[in-house]
Amino acid sequence: DEILRSLAGPPSPPGQDPHGWRVAVDCVRANELCAAEPSCSSRYRTLRQCLAGRDRNTMLANKECQAALEVLQESPLYDCRCKRGMKKELQCLQIYWSIHLGLTEGEEFYEASPYEPVTSRLSDIFRLASIFSGMDPATNSKSNHCLDAAKACNLNDNCKRLRSGYISTCSKEISASEHCSRRKCHKALRQFFDRVPSEYTYRLLFCSCKDQACAERRRQTIVPSCSYEDKEKPNCLDLRNTCRTDHLCRSRLADFHTNCQASFQSLTSCPGDNYQACLGSYAGLIAGFDMTPNYVDASTTSITISPWCSCKGSGNMEEECEKFLRDFTENPCLRNAIQAFGNGTDGNISPKNPSPPVTLPPKTEKSPVLPDDINDSNTMYDTSIITTCTSVQ
User: Fold this and answer.
1) Chief subcellular site (predicted)?
2) What is the value of pTM for the model shown?
3) How far apart are CA 347 and CA 320, in angstroms?
4) Burial class for 252, CB neighbours closer than 10 Å (0-12, 13-18, 19+)
5) d(CA 358, CA 210)
């Protein structure tokens, strides 16, 4: 009866369902709905003036500013979110933060993600990746999966074009003192990860490795000499503060914390046991800013991720700085998600007592980009493992 009455009744106002509950919309649409309502529109203008004040905290303490916030919390703007890669993503994010900076005052260690939740699973990407490559990425332990990922990308016109674009941009020397344009490099990287499907980009970023040549290729995926490394490492909290002055960087960092923050209430250490959300937010953080994370070395026995920063010179903020840095370097959710992708599974199948690693000779040469037509898997180092396994079998 209730359903029939709702169907027979008058249409619901925009932004509400038949029962009067607010329907979550993207922030661009929510802004349009607010602009069509005089009370909402005027309070939104008031809040923007409050946030633009020189002494922001004093302005927000103003009764008129507080009243504007209270009204807007009942508007579609309060619940709005943004879609990753949407046409007006930056505009959407600017609208989101114009509301939520007034609510949080921007002083939280962790901020909620402005993006819609990720509901897909890694298994969807594995299925597509196996179709494109003609094989399951976890079946052949002898192959160089990072080289295979590069070859798979080259078979797709869009992936090949955008990958070649950022490699060329990030490797182009400008002068003797400036070997590349970091700004252009970051922009080209962001276009690649935003426009190429994840079944290609994930395989390049998170390919599993058995030897150092493969791991070095994985580390060089984003051409770190230009996009990642710099002459000196800034303080991590300074880097975070700089990131938070940009709506896009702030949003991608908040999304990373939302989806990759270690959760000890889950089997996988990830919020909601959702590896896909964590890997997606990590890839989104390679968004064209200095916050870009990367593998710190070409180790095959451990995975360590970090932005290019340190906690040197933190003073009395050292504990907070170390906590921020550990969210990258000692993050079990992120590490398990990367290993799960390399193993071709949605679950955490890392053995509790892994076998001793094979000791490899140090790799001396470092090239910005490894050629895709050379099999650099160093299979000679796998001989002892194969012999041992065969004798045991």
Assistant:
1) membrane
2) 0.78
3) 31
4) buried
5) 9
Place of tokens 């939520």: 100
Sketch out the chain's domains with CATH numbers. Answer: 27-101 (no CATH), 122-130+143-343 (1.10.220.110)
For the stretch 335-352, pLDDT in tens is 999 998 887 776 543 433
> What is the DSSP code string of 106-160?
T--SS---SBPPP---HHHHHHHHHHHHSS-TTT-TTS-HHHHHHHHHHTSHHHH
Cβ atoms of 222 and 294 closer than 8 Å = yes
Separation CA 336–CA 88 (nearest Å): 33
Residue at token pair 């925009």 = 14
Q: Do residues 162 and 192 make contact, with C-beta atoms less than 8 angstroms apart?
A: yes
DSSP state of 370: -
**Cα separation of 122 and 255, whole Å?**
18
- Span 171-220, pLDDT tens digits: 998 887 788 999 999 999 999 998 999 889 999 999 999 999 999 999 99
Q: Kind of pairing, strands 305-307 and 293-295?
A: antiparallel
